[in-house]
Amino acid sequence: MMIDKLKNWWGSGSPWIWLNAGAVSISLLLVIGILAMIMVKGMGHFWVSDIYQLDYHDSKAQPRTIIGERIETAEFSSKLFEEVASVKAPAGVDVIQRVLIKSGNRDQASADFQWIYAHYITKQAKPEHLIKLERLEWGNFYGYLKDVKEQGRVVASEKQAWDELNHRFQRVLGLRSELEELEKNSISSINYGLERLRLKKRKLELENKNSAENLAALAVKEDAFKADYQIVIKRLNLLRDEIKRDSATFITADNKEVVVSLHMLVSILKPNQMSVVSKLGHYALNFYNFIFEDPREANTEGGVFPAIFGTVMMVILMSILVTPFGVIAAVYLREYARQGPLIRLIRIAVNNLAGVPSIVYGVFGLGFFVYFLGGNIDQLFYPEALPAPTYGTPGLVWAALTLALLTVPVVIVSTEEGLARIPKNLREGSLALGATKAETLWRVILPMSSPAIMTGLILAVARAAGEVAPLMLVGVVKLAPELPLDDNFPFLHMERKFMHLGFHIYDVGFQSPNVEAARPLVYATAFLLVLVIVLLNLSAIMLRNRLREKYKALD
Length: 555
Description:
Layout: H1 2-11, H2 14-43, E1 52-56, E2 64-77, H3 78-85, E3 95-102, E4 113-117, E5 121-125, E6 130-135, E7 140-150, E8 153-157, H4 159-206, H5 212-243, E9 246-251, E10 257-261, E11 265-269, H6 276-292, E12 295-296, E13 301-302, H7 305-336, H8 341-353, H9 358-381, H10 396-420, H11 424-432, H12 437-466, H13 471-474, H14 501-510, H15 515-550
Antiparallel strand pairs: 1-2, 1-5, 2-3, 3-4, 6-7, 6-11, 7-8, 7-9, 9-10, 12-13
Helix pairs in contact: 2-15, 4-5, 7-10, 7-12, 9-10, 10-12, 11-12, 12-15, 14-15
């Protein structure tokens, strides 16, 4: 009887429903778990941790003082400790605790991270006057403030030093902001203008139009640029002298005095005196800087704004390129081509293209788009710039085209499915009312299949935004000094190289000389990449849902 019930239950298909539901649930839990781990490890990097002062004495070295942040803790057996450290474990201790300390001061020591054993710590404290400096170079600095100097002369010490330090640091931040504005905008615009004039002069020579009149007109513009350049350079030199005026003396854990120029600092904090509210405020500021600042220190410090900008710009450009190609191909295959063996073969080829490794597309993009197409564009339209390439080198437009080629099969298949779902009587009704086939296609079929087109675009964006391998060949670089979009004509410079979040993760995670410093940035950037992809997809999904509501006849 029981066997019959089991047979009936098995034959009803219920086990498969439960297995399917279980598989989906496990997959969702795994995805959520991975995202939660990335978020915790990445977003925790921006929290302001307390600074510890530890008196440390192991069995092989002299007693010393360590100042730094606790990063993580690891535990292992005393037996393993004895094998690794070649010393006896403390009596009665079965589990040894090892602590990773970020001690900073990389310019004073060989490394800014060190592992220590908890049982060798003889004293632990969190002095309120410990200071954390985030620097433009050499990472963090930890120590005590001794005095503040102006042009090498002490202007404040002891209790007055902290307030004076903050006051002068705010002045430095203002000067640095003006310096960056002049260097990134004014100097950049002048250099860009001078380069364009040089190319125009070279073009006149190639076309034998370098008459005295034409050259004189260019010389006037060149003199104007040079005059502006001298004014800006004069102001820059004044600012550089002003910003280097102030410095401060700090005392390290080993009682060494270190003089730090304030223009090399990013932030000054006393974490042990900060309340939870102030730490939350600084957490938000750190995250904001991570989003909107440029990277520094071999991408292990600073922000990722150029990578975010490059990723979004490339995906938008790729979407603009892939949509018409995919839709036109699908319309031809479904609406115009005579169905037969050849069309079936083309569909098989399109489906197979979706399975080609992405690096193959990168090699094709490098050979065809960059060297062949870009090289010929340079020969035809930019001969004055040769032998330096303009479009005959990896850049944003070639990366977008390569990814458009990679994702076009997804758009074709999705659009074809949308076209196939449109009822035949709608086509016939439109034709019966006197519309041509082209008008029927443009006014009836394509609008009603737009949700399917958007579905294909969503899938294309999801894949393209995370691709790295082909981009390494056709446009992505470790550090791009200039964004593809600026206020210099023609504003969008599609020939420029760019940064990408996916490649940034690879570079920081596998090419960084400072592994411990780079690790939290890998998680933070990975989480940010997921957020960018989700936001791009949500935008497309919202548009698709609006189109579905507009064309409910499909249902």
